[in-house]
Each structure stands twice: as C-alpha cells, then as structure tokens.
Amino acid sequence: MSEELRFDGRVAVVTGAGAGLGREYALLFGTRGAKVVVNDLGGSFQGEGASKRAADVVVDEIRALGGTAVADYNSVVDGAKVIETAIKNFGRIDILVNNAGILRDRSIAKTSEQDWDLIHAVHLKGSFKCTQAAWPYMRKQNYGRIIMTSSNSGIYGNFGQANYSAAKMGLVGLANTVAIEGEKNNIHCNVIIPTAASRMTEGILPDMLFNELKPNLIAPVVVYLCHESCEDNGSYIESAAGWATKVHIVRGKGCVLRTSIDEKATSPEYVKIVWSKVTDMTDAKHLDNISQASGYLLEVLENLKEGK
Ligand code: NAD
C-alpha cells in the first residue's frame, strides 16, 4: 500500500453530511486530517422540516475519532452562508463536496411545479450557490477540489424521477464548465455517480443489493478525487459496492446529409434513407472538449468541399 493520503491543513465542506453518503465522506476527511464543515439542514428525505441534530451527531463522531469539525445548519440554497462557516471557523476552503439532496418522485404527469422547483433548488441551485461562494477563495489560493453529485437516474433516466433526473444531469453540465473555468487556478471539478444504501434508496433497491451498497465503500473514491495528488478534472466516476469506473459520453462518426458543398439543403426523406448511418455507433468516440467537436465539423465540411 502506498503512503497514506492526508489532508492536513485542508478545509473540507461536505453538504448534506448529516447522513448517508455525506456522513461517510465527512468522517473519512476528518480521520485524514482535514478540518470539516458538516453541513446539513436536517429535514426529511422529501425536503420537509429542519433539525440541528443530523449535523451535530456527525460533528461529535468526527471529534470522537480525534478529528476537527464544525456544524453548519444552512440550506445549500444559502451557499454563501455555508461557505462562510468554513471561513469563520477555519479561515479557508479547499474542498467542496456538493452532496446534499432530496427526492420528490412522481411520474411526469403528476410532477407539480413545486416538486420540480424544490428538486432543482436543492440539487442544482444549491450546488451552484455553494460553488460560486467558494470560488473566490479557491481562485485566490490557486487550489480547489469540487465534487458534483449526479445519479444514474440522470445519466440513463428512471421512471418517476423526471425532476430529479433533470437536476442530476444539470449537475454534469455544471461540472463540465466549472472544470474548464477552474483549470488555470488548479481548481478541479469532478462528478460522482453513486449508488448506495441510504434512507433515499431504502425500499427502492432489492434487499440483497441494498446490503452490499454500503456508503462507506464510495467515500474513498470521493476522498481520493479531492486529494491534491489526483489530477482528474471533469471526470464522471460511477461507484457502488466497492467498485468504481469512469463514465464517458461518446459521439458516433455520423453521416453527411449533403452530396456536395453546393447543395444547401437536405430533406427529411434523405435523413430517413441514411438514418442507420446517422445512428451507427460502431466508431463512436469520446471528445475531450468543445473545440474537438467543432474541429471535427470543420473536417467534415473540408472533405465535402473536396468532394470526398
Ligand atoms: P441521504 O438522504 O441519506 O442524505 C442527504 C442529506 O442531505 C440528508 O442528511 C439531508 O438532511 C441533507 N439535505 C437535504 N436537503 C438539504 C439542503 N437543502 N441543505 C443541506 N442539506 C440538505 O441521501 P444519500 O443517499 O446519502 O444521498 C446523497 C447524495 O447522493 C444526494 O445528492 C443524492 O441525490 C445522491 N445520490 C444518491 C444515490 C444513492 O443510491 N443513495 C444515488 C445517486 C445519487
């Protein structure tokens, strides 16, 4: 085993750290020398109510293990207040794990505007607000590690989770851009796609699976992603049950819908004829950035010009 990965001198804010996955992240950071802000609103899994107990219990656990932690009871929607707790108590912020979350599962037909807005407020806006509040500190110190929490429900869709899926995929988009904007200041932003036994998944996952999906098995992945030695930036990492992998969005080779550069239109009928080529994923590739996407398009146009 290599040298222990330590976080001495680092300050980590973990949102929604009063239970489930966030609690495991906070405990692991705490035992590795980080000073931890345990943020948790302490409401129900559907986002009702509030209580200081959830955060307090985890702070006590970290202290009992010899670590340093303070509680923060703000909603992530008040991101500035959450980050202020780190600054007031510890004078800096190095790591932000955007983890707080709730569920309001309904089919698309039954999703109310309130359910939609609340899910987006906690997951997407909450992550934006905390990240934006941490940003000036991270930029100034030329260092930061940020995690966004997505979900397979966002990546693949899941019946009854339209609001949650949309917010969770929104977090992938947010991470893509934060990773690009942070790069020059050594601020990395990566995405965790977890599956774990928690109050959120109780009764949804089959018992056999539920018992294997210990949230503590995901914590080492998130904690490593937040270490200064981890060079990943803009990665999506799926993890569950002591297994982890990188996830990519890929693009097919595609098909030109014009026969020559002079042809300025195409037709639905032609699209239908070549549809199997448009949707052929045989030579699908992952693109690293938006320039590669437009670069490839320019190549297609160049070939068309040359009659290739
Ligand atoms: P959990 O319910 O055990 O923990 C979530 C915590 O967030 C709770 O302690 C809750 O009080 C807190 N919270 C909720 N709203 C908050 C707010 N506005 N401000 C601050 N804290 C708030 O759930 P979990 O399973 O540990 O989920 C953690 C994250 O992982 C969530 O973002 C969830 O969507 C995501 N996720 C979980 C799974 C899974 O299988 N458990 C799968 C995919 C994604």
| Morphology call | globular
Across the major sheet, the strand order is: 3-2-1-4-5-6-7-8
How many strands, what sense, and barrel or not for the largest sheet?
8 strands, mixed
Proportion of helical residues:
40-55%
Radius of gyration: 22 Å
Strand content: 15-25%
Family: Belongs to the short-chain dehydrogenases/reductases (SDR) family.
Subcellular location: Peroxisome
Keywords: Fatty acid metabolism, Isomerase, Lipid metabolism, Lyase, Oxidoreductase, Peroxisome
Pathway: Lipid metabolism; fatty acid beta-oxidation
Give keywords:
11 helices; 308 residues; 8-stranded mixed β-sheet; binds nicotinamide-adenine-dinucleotide
Summarize the SSE layout with pairings.
Layout: E1 11-14, H1 20-31, E2 35-39, H2 53-64, E3 68-72, H3 79-90, E4 95-98, H4 113-140, E5 144-149, H5 152-156, H6 162-182, E6 187-195, H7 207-212, H8 219-225, E7 236-240, E8 243-247, E9 250-251, H9 268-273, H10 275-278, E10 285-286, H11 290-305
Parallel strand pairs: 1-2, 1-4, 2-3, 4-5, 5-6, 6-7
Antiparallel strand pairs: 7-8, 9-10
Helix pairs in contact: 1-2, 1-8, 3-4, 4-6
Bound molecules: nicotinamide-adenine-dinucleotide (NAD).
The site of nicotinamide-adenine-dinucleotide has 33 residues, from helix 1, helix 4 and strand 6.
